[in-house]
Amino acid sequence: MPVKVYKLDLSPPARAVIMACDIYKVPVEFIDVDLMNKEHLKPAYLKMNPLHTVPVLVDDDVILHDSHAILIYLSEVYGNNGTLYPNNVKQRALINQKLFFNNSYLFTRLGNVTYPIFMSGARGVDQKKLDDINVAYGILEEFLTRTTFLAGDNLTIADIAAFTTVCGLMYILPIDNSRYPKINSWIKKLENQPYAKKCNEQPAKMYGQFIQKAIQQ
Ligand SMILES: N[C@@H](CCC(=O)N[C@@H](CS)C(=O)NCC(=O)O)C(=O)O
Question: Pfam family example for this protein (predicted)?
């Protein structure tokens, strides 16, 4: 039986999961959730995920919300101990650390700008939120100065997760190449992955352009 993934292509965390499904060739049925029409607030969806977020993965009796938990699960079940999430406690600890960094730190800064836009039609952006994103870029640059990818010198699921977030952030605050050269070269490496071209490129652009328009109003 295929796993089910409830998603929206525009959603950065959903796109991370969609890319992982593509990489691992997961037998999957994708189900679109129309956030604009509040499908995620309907009782059946809330029963599955009281947090009312996408993505959600359903694999028989396992129901998972949160893209990071889903990325780990997919890697463990379908990843064949590959380099994206190797079966090594120390390497996994470093990858998990950066997955948590994306979830708690980077994505929060994206959500601070995008939630009011998507959920309540807000327009414009406060300087404080832009400053917070700039601080996050500084931290990301520092991480990527220490290692080529976020959790070492191999691309891992932590990069895939953070990449989708950065693909949104860069439309809010462009990533100045003279200040953040490592971030820009990391983005290029990820953009060139076949799964990123296939599953991320177009929806990330649409998502970014929508945000850009909203913050310029
Ligand atoms: N930490 C969560 C964040 C998921 C999330 O916030 N998804 C947004 C779309 S990008 C959503 O579903 N928002 C609807 C809501 O919060 O009601 C994850 O990584 O899955």
Answer: GST_N_3
